[in-house]
Amino acid sequence: MARFDTRKRVLFLQLPLLDNDARAVRENQRLAAAYLTAAMERSGETRHYRPVIAGPAFDELDNGHVINRILRADPYAVAATLYVWNVERTLNVLRAVRRQRPETVLMVGGPEVARPHPFLFRSAVPDIAVCGEGEPVFPLVLRALRRGRRTDLATVAWRAAGRYVWGRLPPPEPPLADLLPPPAHRLSRPDENGVAYLESVRGCPARCTFCRYDQQRRRVSSLPVADVVNRIRILRRRGAREIRFIDPTFNAHPRFPELLRAMARVNADRRLRFFAELRADTVTGSMADRLAAANVREVEVGLQSGDPAVLRAVRRPGRPERVFAGIEQLAARGLRTTLDLMCGLPRQTLSDVRRSAARLARVRGARVQLLHTLLIPGTQLRAARARLGLSSQSRPPYRVRSSPTMSEQDMRHAERFVTGLLGRQFDAPARRFVGARLPDLFPERVRLTLDRPSAAVAHGGRANRRALLLQGRDLFGRRAAACSILRRAVRAEPDMLWQFVLCPVWEEPLDLLDALLQVLDDCPAHFLDRWHVAGPGTPRVARRIFVLLRRGRRFDPGWCAAAENLLSAAFV
After folding, report:
1. Are the beta carbons of 40 and 145 closer than 8 angstroms?
2. Radius of gyration in angstroms for the set of CA atoms belonging to the chain, rounded to a whole number
3. Which of 153, 353, 479, 496 could pair with 167 in a Cys bridge, judged by C-beta atoms 3.0 to 4.6 Å apart?
4. Residue 265: exposure state from Cβ atoms within 10 A (0-12, 13-18, ≥19)
C-alpha cells in the first residue's frame, strides 16, 4: 500500500520581473529555492518538511491565479524571495493568502529584506524575515518552528504581538563550498534554453556605498578550482550551452588565472560559452587572453562614472583610466562587453554622464547601460541620503530623482542623451499602436463587448500580461463603460501588465482616447512606471492603449495617423 507523505510542505515562491516585450524569453532563475532545498537536505529538516518549488507556470499567472495555486497546494509555509522588482507584488499575494489561510506561515528573504526597510515591516505581512544569507539560517528557522520557539539570530526577525523581534547572535558564515548544493544535485541543471548559473565567489572585496554585497557577507569566499571545473563538467553533460557566473566580481577569485586555464581545458572544443561580471581595472592583456581562451564570450563591467571624485564619494575602487584600459583589452579579444554607467551618484554631473557615455560608446562591440542610482534599503548610500541631499522615490525602485549636482531635468537629459547616442530605447516600445496588425500585442487576448454593460473583466484571462479587446458599434458613446472597465481591471490586478485594445467599427472621436488616458493617469503607478525617467507626471509604461482596425474595412488615413501620433506620444 502506498505511503502518504505526512511532511509539512514548504512552498518556495519567486515572482518574475515583467516587461512589455511580447517576444522576450522569460528569465526567472529560482536559485534561492534550489540553495535552500539543499540546505534543508543537509540539515535533515527534509525528514519533517517537504520543499516544493513554485515552477515556471507561476511566471505567467496573474495575482489571482498565483494565489489560487498557492491555496490549492495547501502549504504549511510559503518562503518568498524578494527583489526590488517583485517586493510589492509578492506582499500583495501573501496578504491575500493570509486573509484566506491565516494559519499559513509566511517567510521572506532575498536582497530586498533589510532592517531599515521603508514598508516591508510596516506591512505586517511576513511572519518571519531573513536578512542576508539564507542557507545557514533557514534550517534553524524550520527547526525553531517545529519546536514552537524563535531563533536568536541577528539576521532573523519574527513577528510577535504586532511587532518584529530581531535576535542577538551573529549568524554562521560557512565557506561557500558548504553552502551550495552538491555539484550533481538534481536542481543543478540548465534551463530549457540551455542556460545554467554558477557561483564561484560569494562576497565582494569592494565596499561601494550603493550596493549591499559587502553587507550580506563581510568576507569573500570562493570554491576550489577543482570544484568549479567539476560543476562545469556536470552542467555540460546535462545540456548546458551557456554558463553565467553570478559572482559579483568573477576575477575576485583568489586563484583566478588557474581557474581560467582549467576552464579552457574543460572547454577545449568551445561548446560552452561563459558570461561573467568583472572589475576591468585589474584586467591585463594576459588575463584577457585567458578569458578568450576559455570562451568567455560576454562580460559586464561597471565603470559607474568617469570622474574620480564621484568614485571616491561612493568608495568605488579603481581609477577610470585603468578601467578604460581594461575594457579596451577585452574588446581587442572580441569579448562582447556590457558597460554600466550610473546616473545620479553623489557629486556626479550631467557633463560627467555625457563624457563617460561618449567614451564608452567608442568601445568596439560594447553595449552601454545607463543605470539610474537606486537607494536600495540597507545600503550606506540610502542611510546617508539626507546628508548628501539626495531626493528619491519612496517606493521601488527607489530611483534618485535629484542631487545637489544633478537636477531632475538633468536626469531626463542624461537618459535622452544616452538613448540618442546609442540609438536604442531602454524599454520595449511598441512598434505600432494603430493598425489591422499589431505586432506587440500580448498572446493572451480577452474580448469584451461594450454594448453589454454587464461584461466582467475578472472572468476572462489568467496571464500577467494580457490584452483586453474592447469592441462595440459606438465606443465613444459607451466611453463611460470603457473607463469603468479600465478602472476595474487595474484595481483587480494592479501588478500585471495591461493592454487595452479598442476595436472600432468606424472612426471614433479621438476624445475617447483622451478619456481612457486620463483613467490610466489616475491609477496608482506600477513598478515599471516608476522605473522610467520621463517628463513631469507619471510615465505610462505598464498599461497601454492600442487601436486594432477591422480587416477589410478602410479607415481614413488621416484619422489613423492622428490616433497613432496621440498614442505613440502618450506611452514610454
Report:
1. no
2. 25
3. 153
4. exposed
How many angstroms separate the CA atoms of 158 and 107, rounded? 9
CATH number for 26: 3.40.50.280
Residue 521 lies in a domain: yes
User: Distance between CA 329 and CA 67 in Å, rounded?
Assistant: 50
Cα-Cα end-to-end distance for the chain: 60
Indicate whether 129 pLDDT > 50: yes
> Within a 10 A sphere around the Cβ of 7, how many other Cβ atoms?
14
| Residue labelled with grid coordinates 471614433 | 508
Domain residues for 386? 183-422
Cell of 300: 559586464
Residues 377 and 463 in one domain: no
Residue 296 φ then ψ, to 5°: -75, 105
- Does 203 share its domain with 350? yes
Q: Last residue of a domain, which of 107, 134, 166?
A: 166
Instruction: Give the domain-ending residue among 390, 422, 454.
Output: 422
78-82, 496-500, 528-532: least confidently modelled range: 528-532
CATH number of the domain encompassing residue 225: 3.80.30.20
Domain contains 2: no
**Same domain, yes or no: 283 and 389:** yes
pTM: 0.95
C-beta of residue 110 within 8 angstroms of C-beta of residue 81 = yes
Q: Indicate if 445 and 379 belong to the same structural domain.
A: no
pLDDT tens sequence across 287-329: 999 999 999 999 999 999 999 999 999 999 889 999 999 999 9
Give dist(CA 76, CA 118) in Å, integer: 28
pLDDT at 70 over 50: yes
Angle CA 305–217–399, to nearest 5: 40
Q: Distance between CA atoms of 321 and 327, rounded to whole angstroms? A: 10
CA dihedral (511, 514, 518, 519) in degrees, to 10, reads 70
